[in-house]
């Protein structure tokens, strides 16, 4: 019986098993046995490719659909609804029909197609697909989690963020840290309801990945200068707010600003362990947070 790794690791343009396992673990998928009282788990994978990550995701939710009767027409049909029988589904969206059909063929032949009932294959631009889904669902969020494995995944970030449930996870997988940086900067500039949890580098001989320190901060000198300006505006003595007595610890990075305080932030990006960078890819993990009406 072939394993997911041995059956799929035949192309350079795929997510290999160790990295796919890491992504699945970050999503913390454990749906359990089907239950009519629980909401349907809907996971979006944008960028089906060869279907490597697709099958790992299907394996993680398979237990939720283990009970009940399923017809052959259910398998992988892009327009089939859950109608009470499916408790979890992977929506895998690919812009290339050729790639989508190839991935569907692999899924149908792997272990006699046992995971097909868990999958829905779609050929579309992911932002367009999300728009159509939102319009048919009353503009309500419907995604439990989402994974973007696309060249310009940051361009879809806003649409995906609005389609995610609160506490849902969003994963970006990109070959370059600069692509991750663009997504982080966009999320901050547009004040998306996303909280960055971690950035992990994956690659050869990196079991479990290597954590990177990627965050916004204000340089200490700029922080002092801004505090001085605020002090003058409030009629305080010059330099009072720049001292340690203003409650600001100048020896620490400032991670977050208020809703109207985006001035002076810079993006730091470096390996936490101090090791050399050597190929591989990068995984960024966000959680959707609830935003209050005052923007906090």
Characterization of the model:
- With 296 residues, the protein is of the alpha/beta class.
- Helices cover 28% and strands 22% of the residues.
- It has eight helices and nine strands.
- Strands 3-2-1-4-5-9-6-7-8 form a nine-stranded mixed β-sheet, sandwiched between helices.
- Helix 6 (157-163) links the parallel strand 4 and strand 5.
- Helix 2 (17-27) packs across helix 3.
- The protein is globular, with a radius of gyration of 22 Å.
- The termini are far apart.
- 34% of the residues are buried.
Observed structural traits:
8 helices; 296 residues; 9-stranded mixed beta sheet; alpha/beta; single chain; 9 strands
């Amino acid at each position: 019986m072939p394993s997911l790794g041995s059956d799929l690791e035949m192309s350079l343009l795929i997510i290999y098993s160790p990295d796919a396992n890491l992504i699945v673990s970050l999503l913390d998928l454990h749906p359990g046995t089907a239950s009519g009282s629980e909401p349907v788990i809907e996971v979006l994978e944008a960028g089906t490719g060869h279907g490597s990550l697709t099958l790992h995701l299907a394996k993680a939710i398979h237990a939720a659909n283990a009970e009940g009767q399923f017809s052959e027409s259910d398998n992988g049909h892009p327009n089939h609804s859950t109608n009470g029988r499916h408790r979890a589904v992977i929506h895998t969206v690919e812009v290339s029909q050729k790639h989508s059909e190839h991935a569907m063929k692999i899924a149908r032949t792997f272990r006699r197609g046992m995971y097909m009932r868990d999958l829905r294959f779609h050929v579309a631009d992911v932002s367009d697909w999300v728009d159509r889904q939102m319009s048919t669902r009353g503009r309500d969020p419907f995604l439990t989690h989402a994974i973007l494995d696309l060249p310009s995944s940051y361009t879809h970030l806003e649409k995906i963020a609005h389609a995610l449930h609160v506490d849902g996870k969003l994963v970006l997988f990109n070959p370059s840290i600069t692509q991750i940086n663009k997504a982080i900067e966009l999320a901050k500039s547009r004040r998306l309801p996303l909280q960055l949890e971690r950035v992990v580098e994956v690659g050869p001989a990196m079991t479990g990945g290597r954590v990177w320190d990627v965050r916004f901060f204000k340089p200490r000198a700029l922080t002092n200068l801004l505090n001085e300006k605020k002090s003058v505006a409030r009629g305080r003595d010059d330099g009072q707010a720049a001292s340690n007595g203003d409650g600001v610890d100048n020896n620490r990075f400032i991670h977050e600003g208020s809703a109207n305080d985006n001035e002076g932030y810079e993006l730091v990006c470096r390996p936490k362990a101090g090791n050399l960078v050597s190929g591989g890819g990068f995984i960024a993990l966000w959680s959707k947070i609830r935003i209050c009406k005052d923007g906090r």
